[in-house]
Amino acid sequence: MPVYCITGTNRGIGLEFVRQLAQSPDNTIIAATRSSDLGDLRAVASSSTHIIHCDTGNLESIHKFAKEAAAHLLLLSSSSSSPTKNLKIDFLINNAAINPASWQSSLTLNPDDLAAQMSVNVLGPAKIVEFLLEAGLLSENVRIMNMTSGLGSLTRSFEFSPRKAAGYSISKVALNMLSIHQSDDLKKFLPGVVVVVLDPGWVKTRMGGSGAALEPSECVEKTLGVLHGLGEGDNGKFLQYDGKEVPW
């Protein structure tokens, strides 16, 4: 019974992850969301989906989330047919992100907007991993997928003129570097861990807009294929939703 933990599940790609994973009764899903509007999430959730509040821009909220996730998994472990086996997270998808000021360039960056993006898009995934590790909730062979963007590729950014979403791009470059560090630092505690960053492509979500190229269902289906196929040789890689490597 694999355990998935996904952040940012109230809409868009995160919601679609829950919808597709909930199709199998074998999957246990920890769905983290900062939203109080849970109608769409509850509509796609299964009986084995556990919705827990988590604002990835708030350290206290992340810490509380880790404690609640631990309580849920402990309860599930004790009530399972194999009570001696402690359930742990097999797949962690750090999906939550914000892009509040996509029109800002390097010459018009607002300090508060940039700080908010760094907090949610970079420090959030860092602390999610840190606190879940401290709580003993990550399996030895956990697969961690940090959802980045093609805008986080320095190489690809050179191809855009004018350049796009300066603050968001900067935060995603930072997330990519965080992931490289996690891919090494976590090996001391979880020998089989694999950490990757993944570009989901241009997806038709509120952030991506209606003119985007990909439907959420197609993006998530292919992304899950990549996630489930990750091997130790993929640790530290920058991948696309179809499994192709992305230049840093």
Describe this structure in words.
- This protein is 40% helix and 16% strand.
- The chain has a seven-stranded parallel β-sheet, with helices on both faces.
- Strand 4, helix 4 (111-134) and strand 5 (138-147) form a beta-alpha-beta unit.
- It is α/β, with parallel strands linked by helices and 248 residues long.
- It has helices at 12-21, 39-44, 59-79, 111-134, 154-157, 166-185, 216-228; strands at residues 3-6, 28-33, 49-53, 89-94, 138-147, 194-199, 238-240.
- The protein has a single domain (3-99, 117-155, 173-240), classed as NAD(P)-binding Rossmann-like Domain (Rossmann fold), CATH 3.40.50.720.
What is the CA-atom radius of gyration, in angstroms? 17 Å
- Which band does the percent of strand residues land in? 15-25%
Can you summarize the main beta sheet? 7 strands, parallel
Q: Name the shape in a single word.
A: globular
With helices defined by DSSP (H or I, 4 residues minimum), what is the helix count?
7
Helices and strands, in order, run as EHEHEHEHEHHEHE
Residue windows where pLDDT falls under 50 for at least 5 positions: none
Number of domains: 1
Strand order of the largest sheet: 3-2-1-4-5-6-7
CATH superfamily: NAD(P)-binding Rossmann-like Domain
By secondary-structure content and strand pairing, the structural class works out as: alpha/beta
- Measured as a percent range, the helix fraction is 25-40%
Number of strands: 7
CATH domain class name:
Alpha Beta
